[in-house]
Fold this sequence. Notes:
Elements lengths: L1 H22 L5 E14 L13 E13 L2 E10 L12 E12 L3 E8 L1 E3 L5 E3 L1 E2 L4 E2 L2 E10 L3 E12 L2 E2 L3 E10 H4 L5 E13 L4 H5 L5 E13 L2 E19 L2 E19 L2 E11 L49 E13 L11 E13 L7 E16 L4 E12 L10 E15 L2 E12 L6 E10 L3 E9 L7 E11 L2 E10 L2 E5 L2 E5 L2 E11 L1
Antiparallel strand pairs: 1-2, 1-31, 2-3, 3-4, 4-5, 5-10, 6-7, 8-9, 10-11, 11-12, 11-13, 13-14, 14-15, 15-16, 16-17, 17-18, 18-19, 19-20, 20-21, 21-22, 22-23, 23-24, 24-25, 25-26, 26-27, 27-28, 28-31, 29-30
Amino acid sequence: MTRIRFRMFALLALASTLTYAQEDNKKGYLTGSFETNTTYYKDDSKTEAESPEDHFGSNNYLKLDYYQGKFAVGVQLEAYEPVLVGYPKELEKAKLTNYYVSWADKDFSITAGTFYEQFGSGLLFRSWEDRMLGLNNAVMGARFTYNYKNIVGLKAIWGTPRFGMDFSDTQVRGVDVSFSLSEMLKWQNTSLSIEGGALNRYEKISIDLEEEGGKPYSNGFSGRVNFERSGFTMKGEYVDGGDKYYGFIHDDKAFVRKRANAQLLELGYSGSGLGVNLTGRRLEWMNSEIIAGNGSTSNLLNYVPAMSTQYTYMLTNLHPHTPQVGDVTNTISGEMGGQLDVFYHFKRGTVIGGKRGLKLHANFSTYYALEKEGTAQMGNLAFRDFSFDVEKQWTKSFKMNLLYSMQEYSPSYGAKKTTSLSNIFVADLQYKFTPSFSTRMELQYLNTKEDQKDWMAALLELNFAPAWSIYGSDMYNHGKDKIHYYNVGASYAKSRTRIALSYGRNREGYVCSGGVCRTIPKYTGANLTITTSF
């Protein structure tokens, strides 16, 4: 009934806004976008990849937004006919999934229908869309924001998060407040703000859990502080995520209760060509779910990204870090660790920078499983990465980027001491022959004694500006399986439309976006992608 009321309220508000827009003399405008990602799969005897029954998958999105003065309305239609391999199975068929109406002026806004929002860094709560991950947990309900002279900021939300093609029975209610001391005291060169948020999550529970003392609701909160002065920054956040209940057959107990919590600290400096960022984070039972116990990759109610280098090269992403948020089956309550990121730009005309400058970047990240619940004791290593890269523009035509990464990861995410170590080398070379024709080449090598042994990879890209791009790539596991994972493709872009066609063999592994990853199965096939906006 709650979902029906939300939908009726949103649709009535949408109809009222459209009626008002038709009667208003001010001219509005319409924006939109369309995206289709379609793959034809084929069986591959070499990799033993099996195609789905109809050899076909297609994800499609149509988004329309209409703006008139302070009013906006929008809808999103999604069609999965059927969903692409590796995406959550709850995405299916076609449906009008998102629709909203909003009104906003300089200091105040209100939204009815679907909306996206985030409290702080997102550790307590975040609703967002990421089509690469197959994630859209938009909330159906109402959102209110208010800003008073940039001193006080307020957000209030109420609704039911989306899961798959429909909205769940889970309800969330929350408020987030920020208070700027620097704005109130009129500080010129210093920024200091104190923030906090609270979230109530309600989901009907089973009789068995209720008999063991379980509650259908949990209350979480976060406290944050942000400081900036003369290039220095400091951000701190503490999150209490509330009680979590896990199915657990032990000592005649069917469920076990845990308390979610997280701590985050970021220190940074930027100035005179130098950038330094130090981050530390501890997580414990931070798997905030829309539907308790559901294992889908889209079943997320908060944002816990990997805080390490986010690579774009093929071999550096074979085993990315996926944060350990708590695993009752392996008795791991979470993880702790951090990263140090350093960037320096040697300016033009200096001895090291030369005629066109030189950019250096280094990163060290390391994370450990918690040794003991409720403590900051580090247990087994879960992930470690040290990387160093150099970017140099040698001439107007030639640019080079060299990268070295040493990665060590635990296949059990820190449950056991066993780890795998790999050394990865990358050369990224770009050359511009004419203003309209350029090439880019990647040469990569991965050396390891564990896992699947050594890999090599290469990519060649030909760009004919401003419209055409053609590429070919290959990852070869010459250390063990002797399998080539090849891909070839071309794209054409004109104005706001881009069409891309590719064919290749894809290994089982991970797809990551914004520090969040999902696993994908191996497959072989041809892919067509079309994106356009207006």
